[in-house]
Write a sequence for this structure.
């Protein structure tokens, strides 16, 4: 399929551009009438309240499509039990765009302990229960019921992280690709502006959505592999050695290319045998040949016409080691410049995952963020508070992506490893718009950040190296020598932001990659002197080497380096400031002893944490693959490869979390019992080197006294 254009904003505008910009994208027929619309070209269905702000996905995609000339309507948090809710704006001329919202609907509703949350930050008044579980599936099915012939396009983080078969923590099983379960026409993963523009313009020109098969950043369902493609078979983890695969056993090797007959056929076959027996000579394959995974590097295949076959849904559902292997392959095929198409069989159908989307250039991402947003919730919500909006309304997103590769995080799987940064001018313009348009602005910018606060304009020094790289992280186990670590653009941006008239303070609230920050002391000085309001949150995540390795996080000496630098510059600035570290309990690779050692580290450093969290197995992350399979996908997976200890028992996970709050007396009985079991009773007592106090030796403990008191009073009553 020929692309209409290479640049995001160079598409010819759709004819409906004549209607101009809507102050708010319409959410009702009345609003459509006021705009003079008889219909919408595209209708976005979202599990979030509609906030016209560039931190909300529906607003970004909606405004972007509007800039391309399309009439875009929004159905926000529809009642999925009412079929008419999905007909409220009529039938769209082109397609429905369906998303669960800014969060995965299951993570939004359930805690790591699988308990139902009491609130929803993306809903007016924080009310819970306004979106269904597995929203993408439910919404798509309801759109199909309302208008069976209208194409459906699914996207957002929930669809993105479920593009292939994935382990589902809530049902404790591997589920099919959401594309299959929803029966949508096409799935968009990652930041979707490029794919969405291509789909919208192609469909508007009369192309059937089923014919849009090769757009980067999309996944589709096919019946079979098309002609002209070579297939790399990656469905096994116990392949024989290369030589065994190629050994002539007196029968035709199904992976060997046989030359056509010709007068010099014998000499050609002799040359071919020599090539087969040589480790250095490439092997020739013709299109539509199946190549075993171990021979992929020798096959000389063209990435543009090569598909890697993952183990099928049915196989990985019953074999967790194969699941870990499939996860590893997916992550290795994440560089948009060298990734190959992935295919995974679901029954008789093939889920075909095209290569990742090409990252936006600076002028393109500027164009997206420079669109005219109202920066407030839709007027239909009145004075209702939307907690997520209140949290971000005075913040500015300066970049996308993350090259950290933390195994427990899904940012990389969604946004990619290549950093997409805005220009300083674009960021300053947004600060000025916020100052002028957002009610309640008092002069404080609450954050300049993104997935991390200090990867702005940091990328590989060499484009060719970056295009060929398959590393899972640019900063683990050490910072890559090819990575730019100069934070000067971030430092300059901070200074410009502080100088904007009307801005009194610029805070930095996004996560800080401290092992990267220490490479640029001037940045740390700027941060500490001007942008820390007494406390700075950072995330070592753990103290123990074995667990940190499974997280792909730096060892604690890097934390110590940053802490020393932070304290030095705070003192020079005449400020008393403190680090607030974040940690994860019950992460794969972490056992009781690791959590005990972390608790002792916290006590030595006089930390008493209020907010702590257990590991949450989110879809598609590498740590989730560890959790499910108890294998380590950070290296080659086999049935005999490294096993990863994983705590799955809920009571034991509660203990791990309790170690993080060793100072909470409600956890002491549980911790005492665990320390006795671990033969560490030396840590029970009131000494400075002991973790928790001994149980009171009085006749009754406080708890027993309370129970006895309650019983006496209830008897009298």
């Amino acid at each position: 399929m020929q692309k209409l254009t290479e640049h995001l904003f160079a598409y010819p505008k759709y004819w409906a551009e004549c209607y101009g910009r809507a102050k708010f994208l319409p959410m009702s027929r009345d609003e459509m009438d006021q705009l003079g619309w008889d219909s919408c070209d595209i209708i976005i269905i979202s599990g979030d309240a509609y906030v016209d702000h560039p931190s909300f996905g529906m607003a970004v995609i909606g405004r972007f499509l509007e800039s391309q000339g399309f009439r875009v309507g929004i159905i926000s948090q529809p009642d999925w039990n009412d079929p008419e809710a999905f007909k409220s704006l009529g039938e769209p001329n082109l397609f429905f765009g369906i998303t669960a919202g800014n969060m995965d609907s299951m993570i939004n509703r359930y805690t790591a302990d699988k308990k139902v949350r009491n609130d929803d930050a993306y809903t007016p008044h924080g009310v819970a229960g306004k979106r269904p579980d597995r929203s993408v599936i439910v919404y798509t099915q309801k759109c199909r019921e309302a208008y069976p012939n209208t194409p459906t396009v699914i996207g957002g983080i929930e669809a993105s992280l479920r593009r292939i078969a994935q382990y589902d923590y809530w049902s404790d099983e591997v589920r099919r690709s959401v594309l299959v379960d929803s029966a949508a026409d096409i799935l968009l993963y990652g930041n979707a502006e490029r794919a969405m523009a291509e789909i919208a313009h192609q469909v508007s020109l009369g192309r059937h959505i089923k014919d849009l098969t090769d757009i980067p950043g999309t996944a589709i369902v096919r019946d079979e592999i098309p002609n002209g493609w070579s297939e790399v078979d990656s469905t096994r983890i116990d392949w024989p050695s290369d030589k065994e695969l190629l050994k002539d056993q007196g029968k035709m090797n199904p992976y060997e290319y046989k030359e056509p007959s010709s007068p010099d056929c014998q000499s050609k076959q002799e040359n071919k045998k020599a090539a087969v027996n040589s480790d250095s000579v490439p092997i020739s394959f013709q299109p539509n040949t199946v190549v075993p995974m171990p021979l992929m590097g020798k096959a000389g295949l063209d990435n543009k016409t090569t598909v890697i076959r993952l183990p099928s849904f049915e196989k990985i559902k019953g074999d967790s080691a194969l699941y870990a292997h499939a996860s590893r392959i997916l992550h290795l095929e994440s560089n948009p410049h060298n990734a190959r198409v992935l295919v995974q069989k679901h029954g008789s159908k093939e889920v075909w995952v095209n290569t990742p989307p090409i990252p936006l250039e600076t002028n393109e991402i500027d164009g997206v963020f420079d669109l005219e947003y109202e920066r407030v919730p839709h007027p239909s919500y009145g004075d209702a508070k939307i907690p997520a909006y209140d949290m971000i309304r005075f913040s500015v997103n300066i970049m996308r992506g993350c090259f950290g590769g933390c195994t427990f995080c899904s940012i990389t799987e969604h946004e990619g490893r290549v950093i997409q940064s805005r220009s300083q001018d674009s960021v300053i313009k947004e600060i000025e718009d916020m100052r002028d348009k957002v009610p309640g602005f008092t002069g404080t910018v609450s954050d300049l950040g993104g997935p991390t606060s200090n990867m702005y304009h940091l990328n590989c020094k060499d484009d060719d190296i970056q295009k060929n790289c398959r590393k899972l992280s640019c900063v683990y186990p050490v910072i890559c020598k090819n990575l730019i670590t100069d934070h000067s653009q971030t430092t300059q941006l901070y200074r410009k932001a502080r100088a904007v008239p009307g801005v009194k303070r610029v805070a930095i609230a996004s996560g800080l990659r401290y092992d990267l920050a220490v490479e640029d002391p001037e940045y740390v000085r700027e941060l500490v002197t001007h942008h820390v309001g007494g406390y700075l949150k950072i995330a070592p995540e753990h103290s123990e080497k074995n667990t940190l390795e499974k997280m792909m996080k730096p060892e604690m000496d890097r934390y110590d380096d940053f802490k020393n630098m932070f304290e030095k510059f705070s003192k020079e600035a005449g400020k008393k400031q403190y680090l607030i570290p974040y940690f994860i309990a019950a992460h794969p690779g972490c056992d009781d002893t690791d959590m005990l050692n972390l608790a002792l580290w916290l006590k030595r450093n006089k930390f008493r944490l209020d907010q702590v969290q257990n590991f949450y197995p989110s879809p598609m992350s590498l740590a989730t693959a560890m959790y499910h399979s108890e294998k380590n996908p950070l290296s080659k997976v086999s049935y005999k490869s490294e096993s990863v200890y994983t705590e799955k028992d809920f009571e034991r996970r509660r203990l791990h979390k309790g170690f993080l709050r060793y100072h909470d007396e409600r956890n002491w009985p549980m911790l005492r019992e665990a320390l006795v079991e671990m033969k560490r009773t030396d840590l029970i007592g009131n000494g400075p080197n002991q973790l928790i106090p001994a149980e009171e030796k009085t006749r009754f403990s406080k708890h027993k006294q309370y129970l006895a008191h309650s019983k006496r009073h209830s008897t009298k009553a």
Notes: The chain has a mean pLDDT of 91. The domain at 394-511 is CATH 3.30.750.210 (Transcription Regulator spoIIAA). The chain has 26 helices and 22 strands.
